[in-house]
Specification:
The structure holds 2 protein chains of 2 kinds. By secondary structure, chain A is of the alpha+beta class. Chain A is built from 14 helices and 11 strands. Chain A folds into 2 domains: 22-220, Metalloenzyme, LuxS/M16 peptidase-like (Cytochrome Bc1 Complex, Chain A, domain 1); 244-424, Cytochrome Bc1 Complex, Chain A, domain 1, CATH 3.30.830.10. Chain A is 41% helix and 19% strand. In chain B, a hairpin with a 4-residue loop joins strand 4 (74-79) and strand 5 (84-91). In chain B, helix 1 crosses helix 4, helix 9 packs across helix 15 and helix 11 (314-330) crosses helix 15 (387-397). Classes of the chains: A alpha+beta, B alpha+beta. The interface between A and B is large, with 71 and 81 residues.
Chain lengths: 426, 412
């Protein structure tokens, strides 16, 4: 009979082989990074533009410029674009973030040449029809009005404003009236300024055809911008709000909690250590916050902590929704967990577990060309070298000591530097 | 195309293996053939509560998560009305650990009072977070008992009422486990960098010694045919009105399932679909609008749900949906539109086969449907559907006597 109380022997996962992309340039200078691998006949193309919210003069302009790219071009109406993409079973994704905006397209390899001309139109020749803008803006406004009834959404929006300030592009909150102020001309101008070859990077992944590069060149390598790049990089000072905030939602049965602060981003030399520390705190299912606040106290369905890197800054925050009656106790426990990280060295046992967990989860996050290109893309946004970032991370995971984690917690998790926001019932 | 092989252990556990050496990982999916539909009407929410308890330690292993994390694995689980699914991914070198963990919690659980108490609280907080503390969050809690009179689909997986979870006792929990959590009632699928022989060996070591449980014979009351349209008006503190029209449709294994799914695609899949284009973009009547099917194993629902633009009444909104329904009933679907839907389905299939975890889940569900080969052949069932078959489904089910309408009014 097998002894079930004895765990099977474990193999150490200490090797991480990372595929590097093939790098090329289109005729107009756009850099292209290609991950040619995979079993399925799928191709995914991501186009990154320096066209995020930080470049806009007015709220929502970056988001709606991005949203409206496929709502009509010189040659096609919004419906024709949608119909063609649907007909070829292609998936178009558009997202505007704080620093960058992204247009991505995934399709079966056999439809590449059918789909690329449409994507080229979307990027190069959108016309931002007034009527479509009205419809999309109204839709967006209604969705926003639903969102601000959710404690979690409200907490997310307000917390950025609390730590960065309303004047800062990473902190500025939108208002309902911003949807009514959107004008076609601002979108046209924003597109002209920010969707240009000299602010674009392309990442391609999948089972690529041999002529991939020449196809990209045909559709995206010819266009040029005649105007000078007059992009403004506006970065006013950070003007944080109160350290503790409460937003009253008297009818809610749960409170959303956010605790955190501005922190270092992925380019900082301490980042990997902070990343490991954050994993211990709230970065995986077995984290201390989950164990204490969900699995021991039953206060919540979930509690996490996260590090978000921007080009010019970064944010650290703990996030949870807890029963209204236990909101104060949960906040206390969160500070207690931060204090523990600053004052008590982690046990060898827990550290060993976290190291092994991280090694496996990093391996898993490079499974296949699409996962790999996702990892690559998020570093490319910050202009960080892919290979050395991950080899440093793997080395740090191997070598980090309890003392280094204590030092990191004392540097980055000080209670007096934390901002706190609770949205819910008093 | 997914290549796989399958075998059955003597204790009844069904095993499916698919080898893929291009990945350093293995995905393991363990599906238990028990969902909210198998619950007693006075003890609802149990299948889901039980999913939580499966992480509270098993007879020989105090913690499920820690050893898995140490082996570099990740895992999760979900419960729906039809089945409960546990899944994980792990570096192939440590697959032994996954078999050790999954087999021990099939063998027997630790059943600690503390775990039951905490997970009851966690589930109650989940109930609040998903259903009570969101605008429109109670939508399915309202719809199910309104649309179904008899079939256990009349309650949600979270349960009819929070009190059922609050009152769950250790005895209830043990009985539930004994009845449903045994080899005969489970399907194990393993996909990734592993051979069939290796999986067989692991199964012999870890799963084969588990004793056969008693065969569970599902005996669920059938939902009677609805003969009259039903209306329900509610008022909630939300920003906008919402409309929902639900029609009864066929079961997952019914031949008409594919045509019904495609009917919802024509109406609502993609930005060029009819409802989005005509009612959202052209007529500007809705801020959002969807048509979809619930894909349940037993007779399910064909649902329209949408939020009218401010200033558009629920009646106007409904009339506009009805007009589209009449249109598809009375006009032939064009060849191009049908091809578009088929292309989309084909593409969706290739995309969903990209991840090993998805493949493992699809193999498990196909086996549950009675034929593992469906994982590869189901697409042909879609591609062979004709325009007139889709139209027939519309004519048959999208009729007033088969319809339940929820008018969700925003409090003025």
């Amino acid at each position: 009979m097998i002894d079930r109380t004895k765990p099977p022997a474990l193999n150490l996962i200490d090797r991480l082989e990372i595929a590097e992309p093939e790098v090329a340039r289109l005729d107009n200078g756009i850099p292209v990074y290609m991950f040619n691998a995979g079993k399925q006949d799928i191709v995914k193309i991501d186009m990154l533009f320096e066209a995020g919210g930080r470049f806009q003069q007015q709220p929502l302009v970056a988001r709606f410029t991005n949203k409206m790219l496929s709502e009509g071009t010189q040659s096609y109406t919004a419906f024709e674009i949608a119909e063609k993409l649907d007909y070829f079973g292609a998936y178009l994704g558009k997202m505007a973030y704080k620093d960058n905006s992204i247009v991505s397209i995934s399709m079966l390899k056999k439809h590449l040449e059918d789909v690329l001309p449409i994507v080229a139109e979307i990027i190069i020749a959108p016309v931002f029809p007034e009527t479509e803008l009205q419809t999309i803006a109204k839709k967006g406004k209604q969705a926003y009005m639903d969102d601000i009834r959710k404690v979690s959404e409200l907490a997310a929006m307000n917390f950025n404003q609390q730590i960065f300030g309303q004047e800062h592009p990473y902190g500025k909150m939108i208002a309902v009236s911003d949807f009514d102020r959107l004008e076609r001309d601002s979108l046209v101008e924003f597109h002209k300024q920010h969707y240009r070859p000299d602010s674009c990077k392309i990442v391609v992944a999948g089972k690529l055809p041999e002529n991939m590069l020449s196809l990209l060149n045909r559709y995206f390598g010819k266009y040029k911008m005649h105007s000078k790049n007059t992009r403004k990089n506006i970065f006013p000072a950070i003007t944080p709000g109160n350290q503790k905030e409460f937003i009253d939602m008297p009818k809610s049965v749960q409170s959303a909690i956010r605790i955190g602060n501005i922190t270092i981003n992925k380019t900082h030399e301490d980042y990997h250590k902070l990343f490991i520390l954050n994993t211990i705190l709230g970065g995986y299912f077995g984290s201390r916050l989950m164990k204490n606040i969900r699995e021991d106290k039953g206060y919540t369905y979930g509690i996490y902590s996260a590090l978000i890197s921007f080009q010019e800054s970064a944010a650290f925050f703990i996030i949870s929704e807890v029963g209204s009656d236990v909101s104060e106790s949960a906040v206390k426990e969160i500070y207690a967990e931060l204090r523990k990280l600053r004052t008590e060295a982690i046990s060898e046992q827990e550290l060993d577990l976290v190291k092994k967990y991280l090694s496996g989860s990093i391996l898993c996050s490079f499974d296949g060309p699409f996962q790999t290109s996702e990892r690559f893309k998020s570093l490319l946004e910050l202009n960080i070298n892919f290979k050395s970032y991950y080899s440093d991370l793997v080395d740090t995971i191997k070598s980090i000591s309890p003392q280094e984690l204590l030092d990191t917690a004392r540097n980055y998790f000080m209670e007096e530097n934390m901002f706190e926001l609770v949205v819910g019932k008093k | 195309m997914i290549d796989y092989s399958e075998f059955k252990l003597e204790n009844g556990l069904q095993v499916i293996v698919s080898t893929d050496t291009s990945t350093p990982m293995v995905a393991m999916n363990l599906l238990y053939n028990v969902g909210a539909r198998d619950e007693h009407p006075d003890k609802t929410g149990f299948a889901h509560l039980f999913e939580h308890l499966m992480f509270g330690g098993s007879v020989n292993i105090p913690s499920y998560d820690e050893p898995l994390q140490k082996a570099g694995g990740e895992n999760n689980a979900f419960t729906n009305n039809d089945f409960t699914d546990f899944y994980l991914t792990i570096p192939f070198q440590n697959l032994d650990t996954a078999f050790w963990l999954e087999s021990d919690r099939m063998l027997d659980l630790a059943f600690s009072e503390k775990s039951l108490e905490v997970q009851r609280n966690v589930v109650i907080e989940e109930f609040k977070q998903r259903y009570l503390n969101q605008p429109y969050g109670d939508f399915w809690l309202l719809m199910r008992p309104f649309v179904y009179t008899t079939h256990p689909y009349r309650w949600s997986t979270i349960g009819k009422d929070i009190s059922h979870i609050e009152n769950a006792t250790m005895d209830d929990v043990r009985t539930f486990y004994k009845k449903f959590y045994h080899p005969k009632n489970a399907i194990l699928s393993v996909v990734g960098n592993i051979t069939e022989d290796e999986v067989r060996k692991f199964c012999e070591t870890w799963f084969a010694p588990i004793v056969k449980g008693e065969v569970y014979v599902r005996n669920i009351p059938k939902e009677p045919v609805q003969t009259e349209r039903k209306n329900l008006h509610v008022e909630r503190d939300v920003p906008f009105d919402m409309l929902c029209k639900a029609y009864h449709m066929c079961a997952r294994k019914d031949a008409a399932f594919y045509a019904t799914d495609m009917l919802s695609d024509i109406l609502s899949n993609g930005n060029s679909s009819r409802l989005y284009n005509i009612l959202v973009k052209e007529k500007k009547l809705f801020s959002e609008l969807d048509a979809y099917i619930t894909s349940d194993m037993d007779e399910g629902l064909f649902v329209f749900s949408g939020k009218p633009m401010k200033g558009i009444s629920l009646e106007q909104a409904e009339a506009a949906i009805d007009e589209e329904i009449e249109h598809i009933k009375n006009n032939t679907i064009g060849e191009k539109e049908l091809d578009k839907i088929k292309n989309k389905l084909e593409s969706a299939m290739v995309f969903s086969n990209e991840s090993i975890l998805n493949r493992a889940m699809k193999l498990g569900v196909s086996n549950l449907l009675g034929d593992t080969q469906l994982v590869n052949t189901e697409i042909d069932n879609y591609l062979s559907v004709s325009a007139s078959e889709i139209q027939d489904v519309a004519r048959k089910i999208l009729i007033d006597s088969n319809c339940s309408v929820l008018y969700y009014h925003a409090k003025k």
